[in-house]
Amino acid sequence: MNNLLELKNVSYYYQTKQNEINALDNINFSLKEKDFTSLVGPSGCGKTTILSLIAGLLTPSSGEILLDGKKIEKNDGRIGYMFQRDHLFEWRTIWQNITIGLEIQKKKKDEKKLAFAEELLKKYDLYAFKNKKPRQLSGGMRQRVALIRTLVLEPDLLLLDEPCSALDFQTRLKVCDDVYDSIKSEKQTALLVTHDISEAISMSDKIIILSKRPATVKEEISLSLAGATPLLKREDSSFGNYFEMIWRSLV
Question: Is 0.70 surpassed by the pTM of this model?
Fold first, then answer.
């Protein structure tokens, strides 16, 4: 299977009033098509910075980032970004929130895209809330809306910046299952940033472990767990071994 995303010798520096900060140092990794990969590392090591570079929101100080062999541009339509908060507009209905990306891309009248949006709403039990406002939904439902809003645009690569971290534990487990199911059923390639080792193990095909700042890639671990959902994968006998391996690498 081909590499969809490639980071080649990527470094990133930024200026403060006092000095220059070296955030990332010679980062190299790749993602294959349809893989679900997680980035883990110490707090403040630059995980979200890597997502911002991939999304084209920041420019590498050196090195290059390629998506399907082509350099990533600012506001690259091939990339979808799901943030930690859902960022739904409270004055718009769920349908209007989901289709806002189509409005921006001037595809609001694209019947195929609109039909796909309706299909996703039905598939993830949100169609009955189509004309509701975000405040009328639970936290887990709001995150599903945010995911559908991203999937409607059919990006080649989906970036997930701790999308479940603001939820309570029980809701978080359910939403992780929903996100995983959505991404796998839509055959998406995804990169997740998370502080939660268990979440990373249960959702990923591969985990990339970063060092403390300036971040380098310490290790890549390929996972093989039985179970159709992240929740069921937590019951695999190898789960604890993976957890200890990653935890020791981080500390």
Answer: yes
Distance CA 220, CA 7 (A): 14
31: its two tokens: 């993602």
Residue whose C-alpha is closest to residue 231's, from 201, 194, 211: 201
CA 212 to chain centre: 21
How many other C-beta atoms can be found within 10 angstroms of the C-beta atom of residue 165? 14
3-state SS, residue 155: coil
Domains of the chain: 3-78+156-250 (3.40.50.300), 89-154 (no CATH)
Report whether pLDDT(8) > 70. yes
Q: Quick check: 120 and 151 in contact, CB under 8 A?
A: yes
Q: How far apart are CA 179 and CA 120, in angstroms?
A: 12
